[in-house]
Design brief:
globular; about 210 residues; four-stranded antiparallel β-sheet; alpha+beta
Length: about 210
Amino acid sequence: MSIIWKNLSALFLSCLFIGCASQSGNTVDTNSKSEVVNDVIMTRRSIRSYKQVPVSRDTLKSILDAGINAPSGQNKQSWEIRVADKPETMQSIMDAMALSNPDVINPGSCFRGAPVMLFIAKDDGYPFSSIDCGLLSENIMLSAWSMGVGSICLGSPISFIQNSPELLEMLGFSENYSLAICIGLGYPDEKPEAKPRNKAKYTFLD
């Protein structure tokens, strides 16, 4: 990991955990943190090609810790996360997916070749759990990017996984929790260009 990524990660995570509140005498420092956070947001890309290089558990724990520091309604933290970061675990998941979904020619393509998969479930008993999981996911992807780890948010594997009793048992979510989001993580093997954004989608009410 380059020195630039390390510095970017340290500054970004400091903003996540202690905030960017301005105090007398530290305006320059606050501005610096703000610029780093904005840079992480504006440069993040969805990655669809990954180097087959492991992401260390320490790095994953840092990413997940940033994730669960996302805001949630009434601080319910209405999510559960399962992490698949071993090749043999990923292979077992893909084998089970293929068994339950024979029309899926290459289940691995559903995960875009990411060496790590996060499976995020929502609490079906809480009506705003989907929002909580979305906030959690964004924190995860931004934190990952600040450390040089790419990510992609995936919805297509969900239906395949829901069709597999074996996979659902493997994931072992609590009762009344259901799979909501899949996130692939890994070191990028591509540099996608930014896609255009439609600024007409936000409007000020005068």
